[in-house]
Write a structure and sequence with these properties.
14% strand, binds hypoxanthine, binds zinc ion, alpha/beta
Protein backbone atom coordinates (compact mmCIF):
# COMPACT_ATOMS: atom_id res chain seq x y z
CA UNK A 1 0.00 0.00 0.00
CA UNK A 2 1.17 3.50 -0.77
CA UNK A 3 0.97 6.29 1.81
CA UNK A 4 -2.07 7.62 -0.06
CA UNK A 5 -3.77 4.20 0.07
CA UNK A 6 -3.11 3.96 3.80
CA UNK A 7 -4.44 7.48 4.37
CA UNK A 8 -7.61 6.81 2.38
CA UNK A 9 -8.30 3.43 3.98
CA UNK A 10 -7.92 4.96 7.46
CA UNK A 11 -10.14 7.97 6.75
CA UNK A 12 -13.58 7.28 8.31
CA UNK A 13 -16.21 7.57 5.61
CA UNK A 14 -19.81 6.82 4.72
CA UNK A 15 -20.94 5.40 1.42
CA UNK A 16 -24.20 6.99 0.24
CA UNK A 17 -24.54 5.77 -3.34
CA UNK A 18 -24.23 2.02 -3.70
CA UNK A 19 -26.60 -0.29 -5.54
CA UNK A 20 -26.31 -3.60 -3.73
CA UNK A 21 -27.07 -5.46 -6.97
CA UNK A 22 -24.12 -3.59 -8.45
CA UNK A 23 -21.78 -5.17 -5.91
CA UNK A 24 -22.36 -8.66 -7.39
CA UNK A 25 -18.85 -9.79 -8.36
CA UNK A 26 -18.58 -12.27 -11.27
CA UNK A 27 -17.26 -14.99 -8.91
CA UNK A 28 -20.37 -14.74 -6.71
CA UNK A 29 -22.57 -14.54 -9.82
CA UNK A 30 -21.19 -17.92 -10.93
CA UNK A 31 -21.48 -19.43 -7.46
CA UNK A 32 -25.12 -18.35 -7.11
CA UNK A 33 -25.95 -19.48 -10.66
CA UNK A 34 -24.66 -22.96 -9.73
CA UNK A 35 -26.36 -22.97 -6.30
CA UNK A 36 -29.73 -21.97 -7.83
CA UNK A 37 -29.50 -23.81 -11.14
CA UNK A 38 -29.83 -20.55 -13.08
CA UNK A 39 -28.10 -20.29 -16.45
CA UNK A 40 -26.17 -17.12 -17.27
CA UNK A 41 -25.00 -16.06 -20.73
CA UNK A 42 -21.28 -16.27 -19.84
CA UNK A 43 -18.83 -19.18 -19.91
CA UNK A 44 -16.31 -17.81 -17.41
CA UNK A 45 -15.54 -15.04 -14.92
CA UNK A 46 -13.11 -13.62 -17.49
CA UNK A 47 -15.86 -13.51 -20.10
CA UNK A 48 -18.10 -11.61 -17.68
CA UNK A 49 -15.40 -9.04 -16.93
CA UNK A 50 -14.68 -8.64 -20.64
CA UNK A 51 -18.36 -7.78 -21.20
CA UNK A 52 -18.07 -4.80 -18.81
CA UNK A 53 -17.16 -2.35 -21.52
CA UNK A 54 -19.93 0.23 -21.62
CA UNK A 55 -20.56 3.29 -23.76
CA UNK A 56 -23.56 4.61 -21.84
CA UNK A 57 -25.91 3.96 -18.92
CA UNK A 58 -28.29 1.67 -20.84
CA UNK A 59 -25.43 -0.59 -22.01
CA UNK A 60 -24.56 -1.15 -18.37
CA UNK A 61 -28.15 -1.53 -17.16
CA UNK A 62 -28.85 -4.33 -19.67
CA UNK A 63 -26.01 -6.45 -18.30
CA UNK A 64 -26.67 -5.43 -14.66
CA UNK A 65 -30.30 -6.62 -14.79
CA UNK A 66 -29.21 -9.86 -16.51
CA UNK A 67 -26.65 -10.53 -13.74
CA UNK A 68 -29.27 -10.00 -11.02
CA UNK A 69 -31.15 -13.07 -12.31
CA UNK A 70 -28.98 -15.32 -10.12
CA UNK A 71 -30.40 -13.72 -6.92
CA UNK A 72 -33.36 -15.77 -5.70
CA UNK A 73 -33.35 -16.47 -1.96
CA UNK A 74 -32.84 -14.47 1.22
CA UNK A 75 -29.54 -16.32 1.65
CA UNK A 76 -28.44 -14.97 -1.76
CA UNK A 77 -29.25 -11.39 -0.74
CA UNK A 78 -27.53 -11.94 2.61
CA UNK A 79 -24.39 -13.30 0.93
CA UNK A 80 -24.38 -10.49 -1.63
CA UNK A 81 -24.62 -7.80 1.04
CA UNK A 82 -22.07 -9.46 3.37
CA UNK A 83 -19.52 -9.53 0.55
CA UNK A 84 -20.10 -5.80 0.04
CA UNK A 85 -19.89 -4.96 3.77
CA UNK A 86 -16.63 -6.89 4.18
CA UNK A 87 -15.10 -5.11 1.20
CA UNK A 88 -16.39 -1.69 2.32
CA UNK A 89 -15.11 -2.20 5.88
CA UNK A 90 -11.63 -2.80 4.47
CA UNK A 91 -11.95 0.58 2.72
CA UNK A 92 -12.72 2.45 5.95
CA UNK A 93 -16.49 2.68 5.39
CA UNK A 94 -18.11 2.94 8.82
CA UNK A 95 -21.65 3.64 7.60
CA UNK A 96 -23.36 2.61 4.33
CA UNK A 97 -26.75 3.65 2.93
CA UNK A 98 -27.43 0.99 0.34
CA UNK A 99 -29.93 1.11 -2.50
CA UNK A 100 -31.83 -1.93 -3.66
CA UNK A 101 -34.21 -2.32 -6.60
CA UNK A 102 -37.14 -4.51 -5.46
CA UNK A 103 -38.74 -4.49 -8.91
CA UNK A 104 -35.70 -6.17 -10.48
CA UNK A 105 -36.52 -9.15 -8.26
CA UNK A 106 -40.29 -9.09 -7.75
CA UNK A 107 -40.80 -8.90 -11.54
CA UNK A 108 -38.95 -12.28 -11.72
CA UNK A 109 -41.23 -13.78 -9.08
CA UNK A 110 -38.90 -13.32 -6.10
CA UNK A 111 -40.98 -12.27 -3.06
CA UNK A 112 -39.98 -8.86 -1.67
CA UNK A 113 -39.65 -10.52 1.77
CA UNK A 114 -36.71 -12.60 0.49
CA UNK A 115 -34.94 -9.47 -0.71
CA UNK A 116 -35.51 -7.30 2.35
CA UNK A 117 -35.05 -10.00 5.02
CA UNK A 118 -31.79 -11.13 3.40
CA UNK A 119 -30.46 -7.57 3.34
CA UNK A 120 -31.59 -6.85 6.92
CA UNK A 121 -29.88 -9.98 8.27
CA UNK A 122 -26.62 -8.99 6.54
CA UNK A 123 -26.91 -5.46 7.96
CA UNK A 124 -27.20 -6.87 11.48
CA UNK A 125 -24.24 -9.18 10.85
CA UNK A 126 -22.14 -6.30 9.47
CA UNK A 127 -22.79 -4.26 12.60
CA UNK A 128 -21.75 -7.21 14.78
CA UNK A 129 -18.69 -8.20 12.73
CA UNK A 130 -17.35 -4.89 11.43
CA UNK A 131 -19.02 -2.31 13.67
CA UNK A 132 -20.49 -0.86 10.48
CA UNK A 133 -23.92 0.77 10.57
CA UNK A 134 -26.13 0.80 7.51
CA UNK A 135 -29.56 1.68 6.23
CA UNK A 136 -31.73 0.79 3.24
CA UNK A 137 -32.88 2.93 0.33
CA UNK A 138 -35.71 1.38 -1.65
CA UNK A 139 -35.25 2.53 -5.24
CA UNK A 140 -37.92 2.64 -7.93
CA UNK A 141 -37.03 1.73 -11.50
CA UNK A 142 -37.85 4.82 -13.55
CA UNK A 143 -38.25 2.99 -16.86
CA UNK A 144 -41.37 1.34 -15.35
CA UNK A 145 -44.69 3.18 -14.82
CA UNK A 146 -45.42 5.18 -11.67
CA UNK A 147 -48.23 2.71 -10.88
CA UNK A 148 -45.59 -0.04 -10.53
CA UNK A 149 -43.67 2.16 -8.07
CA UNK A 150 -46.87 2.61 -6.04
CA UNK A 151 -47.37 -1.17 -6.00
CA UNK A 152 -43.78 -1.65 -4.78
CA UNK A 153 -44.23 0.90 -2.00
CA UNK A 154 -47.38 -0.95 -0.91
CA UNK A 155 -45.56 -4.32 -0.96
CA UNK A 156 -42.80 -2.86 1.21
CA UNK A 157 -45.27 -1.53 3.79
CA UNK A 158 -44.46 -4.15 6.51
CA UNK A 159 -40.77 -3.08 6.45
CA UNK A 160 -41.09 0.70 6.08
CA UNK A 161 -39.93 1.25 9.68
CA UNK A 162 -36.63 -0.37 8.64
CA UNK A 163 -36.23 1.57 5.38
CA UNK A 164 -34.63 5.01 5.55
CA UNK A 165 -35.44 6.44 2.16
CA UNK A 166 -36.77 5.91 -1.32
CA UNK A 167 -34.71 6.53 -4.44
CA UNK A 168 -35.08 6.64 -8.21
CA UNK A 169 -32.73 4.88 -10.61
CA UNK A 170 -32.40 3.08 -13.99
CA UNK A 171 -32.71 4.69 -17.46
CA UNK A 172 -32.75 8.44 -16.87
CA UNK A 173 -33.34 10.16 -20.21
CA UNK A 174 -37.03 10.10 -21.15
CA UNK A 175 -38.04 9.27 -17.56
CA UNK A 176 -37.96 12.62 -15.75
CA UNK A 177 -38.61 12.98 -12.02
CA UNK A 178 -42.04 14.52 -12.74
CA UNK A 179 -43.23 11.04 -13.82
CA UNK A 180 -42.90 9.98 -10.13
CA UNK A 181 -44.10 13.12 -8.31
CA UNK A 182 -47.15 11.42 -6.77
CA UNK A 183 -45.40 8.29 -5.47
CA UNK A 184 -42.63 10.37 -3.91
CA UNK A 185 -45.27 12.55 -2.23
CA UNK A 186 -46.80 9.35 -0.81
CA UNK A 187 -43.36 8.21 0.41
CA UNK A 188 -42.71 11.59 2.06
CA UNK A 189 -46.07 11.33 3.84
CA UNK A 190 -44.93 8.00 5.26
CA UNK A 191 -41.90 9.77 6.75
CA UNK A 192 -39.35 8.35 4.29
CA UNK A 193 -36.37 10.43 3.14
CA UNK A 194 -35.99 11.09 -0.56
CA UNK A 195 -33.14 10.75 -3.00
CA UNK A 196 -33.08 10.49 -6.79
CA UNK A 197 -30.59 9.96 -9.58
CA UNK A 198 -30.58 13.18 -11.58
CA UNK A 199 -28.15 14.82 -13.96
CA UNK A 200 -26.13 11.68 -14.68
CA UNK A 201 -27.20 11.56 -18.33
CA UNK A 202 -30.34 13.68 -17.98
CA UNK A 203 -30.31 17.49 -18.32
CA UNK A 204 -30.12 20.07 -15.50
CA UNK A 205 -33.93 20.35 -15.78
CA UNK A 206 -34.18 16.87 -14.20
CA UNK A 207 -32.19 18.11 -11.18
CA UNK A 208 -34.60 21.07 -10.87
CA UNK A 209 -37.51 18.62 -11.00
CA UNK A 210 -35.96 16.35 -8.37
CA UNK A 211 -35.73 19.37 -6.04
CA UNK A 212 -39.11 20.93 -6.86
CA UNK A 213 -41.32 17.90 -7.52
CA UNK A 214 -39.77 15.07 -5.48
CA UNK A 215 -38.50 17.05 -2.49
CA UNK A 216 -35.13 15.28 -2.48
CA UNK A 217 -32.80 15.37 0.52
CA UNK A 218 -29.89 14.61 -1.78
CA UNK A 219 -29.11 14.15 -5.47
CA UNK A 220 -27.45 11.00 -6.82
CA UNK A 221 -24.74 12.00 -9.34
CA UNK A 222 -25.83 15.56 -10.30
CA UNK A 223 -22.90 16.07 -12.70
CA UNK A 224 -24.93 17.92 -15.31
CA UNK A 225 -26.04 20.52 -12.74
CA UNK A 226 -22.69 22.13 -13.52
CA UNK A 227 -24.15 23.27 -16.88
CA UNK A 228 -26.57 25.62 -15.08
CA UNK A 229 -25.06 28.42 -12.94
CA UNK A 230 -28.39 29.25 -11.26
CA UNK A 231 -28.83 25.60 -10.33
CA UNK A 232 -25.31 25.44 -8.91
CA UNK A 233 -26.09 28.49 -6.77
CA UNK A 234 -29.31 26.87 -5.55
CA UNK A 235 -27.63 23.57 -4.67
CA UNK A 236 -24.95 25.47 -2.73
CA UNK A 237 -27.55 27.62 -0.96
CA UNK A 238 -29.63 24.57 -0.01
CA UNK A 239 -26.52 22.62 1.06
CA UNK A 240 -27.68 19.76 -1.14
CA UNK A 241 -25.45 16.70 -1.01
CA UNK A 242 -24.38 15.22 -4.34
CA UNK A 243 -23.43 11.55 -4.32
CA UNK A 244 -20.75 11.56 -6.99
CA UNK A 245 -19.33 8.32 -8.44
CA UNK A 246 -16.06 8.96 -10.31
CA UNK A 247 -15.26 5.46 -11.65
CA UNK A 248 -18.90 5.03 -12.69
CA UNK A 249 -18.78 8.38 -14.48
CA UNK A 250 -15.73 7.20 -16.39
CA UNK A 251 -17.06 3.70 -17.21
CA UNK A 252 -20.42 5.08 -18.41
CA UNK A 253 -18.77 7.88 -20.40
CA UNK A 254 -20.33 10.68 -18.32
CA UNK A 255 -16.73 11.95 -18.38
CA UNK A 256 -14.43 10.99 -21.22
CA UNK A 257 -11.39 10.78 -19.03
CA UNK A 258 -10.96 10.76 -15.24
CA UNK A 259 -8.57 13.66 -15.74
CA UNK A 260 -11.65 15.65 -16.82
CA UNK A 261 -13.67 14.74 -13.72
CA UNK A 262 -15.34 17.83 -12.17
CA UNK A 263 -15.00 16.76 -8.51
CA UNK A 264 -12.64 19.62 -7.63
CA UNK A 265 -14.82 22.08 -9.58
CA UNK A 266 -17.78 20.92 -7.48
CA UNK A 267 -15.84 21.54 -4.25
CA UNK A 268 -14.63 24.90 -5.53
CA UNK A 269 -18.25 25.95 -6.14
CA UNK A 270 -19.05 24.99 -2.53
CA UNK A 271 -21.17 22.00 -3.51
CA UNK A 272 -21.49 19.21 -0.91
CA UNK A 273 -19.93 16.51 -3.08
CA UNK A 274 -19.26 13.01 -1.78
CA UNK A 275 -17.38 10.04 -3.24
CA UNK A 276 -19.13 6.73 -3.84
CA UNK A 277 -18.77 3.53 -5.84
CA UNK A 278 -22.27 3.15 -7.41
CA UNK A 279 -21.87 -0.39 -8.84
CA UNK A 280 -18.37 -1.42 -7.77
CA UNK A 281 -18.38 -4.91 -9.30
CA UNK A 282 -19.14 -3.39 -12.71
CA UNK A 283 -17.10 -0.19 -12.62
CA UNK A 284 -13.77 -1.51 -11.41
CA UNK A 285 -13.50 -0.26 -7.86
CA UNK A 286 -14.92 0.16 -4.36
CA UNK A 287 -15.07 3.42 -2.48
CA UNK A 288 -11.36 3.73 -1.63
CA UNK A 289 -10.53 3.12 -5.31
CA UNK A 290 -12.82 6.05 -6.13
CA UNK A 291 -11.09 8.34 -3.60
CA UNK A 292 -7.72 7.27 -4.98
CA UNK A 293 -8.86 7.82 -8.57
CA UNK A 294 -9.86 11.45 -7.99
CA UNK A 295 -6.88 12.14 -5.74
CA UNK A 296 -4.58 10.99 -8.53
CA UNK A 297 -6.48 12.25 -11.59
CA UNK A 298 -7.36 15.66 -10.15
CA UNK A 299 -4.53 16.16 -7.67
CA UNK A 300 -6.78 16.39 -4.60
CA UNK A 301 -4.82 16.82 -1.38
CA UNK A 302 -5.60 15.16 1.95
CA UNK A 303 -7.65 18.13 3.18
CA UNK A 304 -9.90 17.84 0.11
CA UNK A 305 -10.29 14.10 0.67
CA UNK A 306 -11.22 14.80 4.30
CA UNK A 307 -13.80 17.36 3.11
CA UNK A 308 -15.34 14.69 0.87
CA UNK A 309 -15.45 12.27 3.81
CA UNK A 310 -17.01 14.94 6.09
CA UNK A 311 -19.65 15.58 3.43
CA UNK A 312 -20.47 11.85 3.41
CA UNK A 313 -21.58 12.11 7.05
CA UNK A 314 -23.31 15.49 6.86
CA UNK A 315 -25.19 14.19 3.80
CA UNK A 316 -26.16 10.90 5.45
CA UNK A 317 -29.51 10.07 7.00
CA UNK A 318 -27.85 9.45 10.39
CA UNK A 319 -29.12 11.27 13.50
CA UNK A 320 -27.29 14.56 14.21
CA UNK A 321 -25.43 13.16 17.23
CA UNK A 322 -24.00 10.29 15.15
CA UNK A 323 -22.96 12.71 12.41
CA UNK A 324 -21.18 14.85 15.02
CA UNK A 325 -19.37 11.80 16.44
CA UNK A 326 -18.16 10.75 12.98
CA UNK A 327 -16.97 14.29 12.22
CA UNK A 328 -15.02 14.27 15.50
CA UNK A 329 -13.36 11.03 14.37
CA UNK A 330 -12.30 12.65 11.10
CA UNK A 331 -10.89 15.65 13.01
CA UNK A 332 -8.92 13.32 15.28
CA UNK A 333 -7.65 11.36 12.28
CA UNK A 334 -6.52 14.50 10.49
CA UNK A 335 -4.87 15.88 13.65
CA UNK A 336 -2.92 12.62 14.00
CA UNK A 337 -1.46 12.92 10.46
CA UNK A 338 2.14 14.07 10.50
N1 LIG B 1 -27.75 5.18 -12.79
C1 LIG B 1 -29.00 4.77 -12.94
N2 LIG B 1 -29.42 3.59 -12.53
C2 LIG B 1 -28.57 2.78 -11.93
C3 LIG B 1 -27.25 3.14 -11.75
C4 LIG B 1 -26.82 4.42 -12.19
O1 LIG B 1 -25.66 4.85 -12.05
N3 LIG B 1 -26.65 2.09 -11.14
C5 LIG B 1 -27.59 1.14 -10.94
N4 LIG B 1 -28.75 1.55 -11.43
ZN1 LIG C 1 -26.43 4.87 -9.10
Amino acid sequence: MTDLDTFIAGLPKAELHLHIEGSLEPELMFALAARNGVSIPFASVEEVRAAYDFTNLQDFLDIYYAGAAVLLTRQDFHDLAMAYFARAAADGVVHAEIMFDPQTHTDRGVPIAEVIEGLLSAMAAAEAQFGMTSSLILSFLRHLPEAAAFATLAEAEPWLDRIAAVGLDSSEVGHPPEKFARVFAAAREKGLRITAHAGEEGPPEYVHQALDLLGVHRIDHGNRALEDPALIARLVREEMTLTVCPLSNHKLCVVEDLADHPIDAMLAHGLKATINSDDPAYFGGYVADNYRAVATARGLDREALATLARNSFTGSFLPAEDVAAHLDRIDAYMAAQG
